[in-house]
Amino acid sequence: MTALLQLDDLHVFYGASQALDGVSLQVDEGQAVALMGRNGMGKTTTISTALRMLPLRKGRVVFAGQDISTLPSFRAARLGMGLVPEGRRCFPNLTVHENLIAAARSGYWDLGRVQQLFPRLQERADQYAVSLSGGEQQMLAIGRALMTNPRLLILDEATEGLAPVIRREIWSAITRLRSEGLSILLVDKTLSEILPFADACVILDRGRVVWQGAPDGLTADLQHTYLGV
Ligand code: ATP
Asked: Atom 2 in ligand 1: which residue has the minimum CA distance?
């Protein structure tokens, strides 16, 4: 399989404090990779580095065969990385419809397809984003990322803090995207949802990759040591 995203030996600092200490991982074309680990272990930093939002002290980011280690983030995103950020940032004073249109780039995903994936976004088309529930805002954030027609969808804690019924709806949409062949990198903590979904899991602990492999290799011991399960 060909690598779509390849992170090699990432070393990243916030001021004097080191957040990533040699992180390497790969997402192949059509693969779903879960980035796991307890709070503060470097998951969001890894994603932000892949998206070129943080400077690299050492290491390399390669996307679709192109070394983007020194590319500014707006250009990196245009190459086809669609981020659903932690905290589901949408434009609060635009309607659902306007939020989606503002993100649009031509391709397979358009308004109709996004609304088919999340019918609630069609029902709420003329409502301001600020008036949506948390779950609906998350659907909108995913819809916005899809409207950019990404080659890689990156989800940071997509279902955290949401009610079970909404979580199920979002997981079922993400699973559908995966089965349609979209490459996905996601940060999440819920093993019961990740294990049947991911092709590969990567565990971070204090800025280092301490384990990676297929989900069925995630033993109770590993879960206890690194995920606090
Ligand atoms: P969480 O699950 O809580 O989101 P995480 O695994 O995504 O955690 P990061 O947010 O990547 O972890 O944080 C990694 C380390 O870098 C932590 O020690 C954190 O305190 C630190 N850190 C993150 N953002 C900043 C920042 N803007 N300035 C300084 N330190 C930061």
From this structure: 39
The dihedral of CA 80, 216, 160, 69: what is its sign? negative
Residue partners of 174: CB distance under 8 A and separation at least 6? 142, 155, 158, 184, 186, 197
Distance from residue 42's CA to the centre of ligand 1 (Å):
6
Tens of pLDDT, residues 18-77: 999 999 999 999 999 999 999 999 999 999 999 999 999 999 999 999 999 999 888 888
Checking DSSP bridges between strand 32-36 and strand 152-156, what pairing results, if any? unpaired
- Is any atom of ligand 1 closer than 6 Å to the C-beta of 183? no
Measured CA to CA, the distance from residue 109 to residue 114 in angstroms comes to 7
Q: Map out the domains of the chain with their CATH numbers.
A: 1-79+152-157+183-229 (3.40.50.300), 81-150 (no CATH)
Q: 14 forms bridges with which residues in the sheet?
A: 17
3-class state of residue 77 by DSSP = helix
Tell me which residue has its CA closest to atom 9 in ligand 1. Answer: 42
Considering the entire predicted model, what is its pTM? 0.94
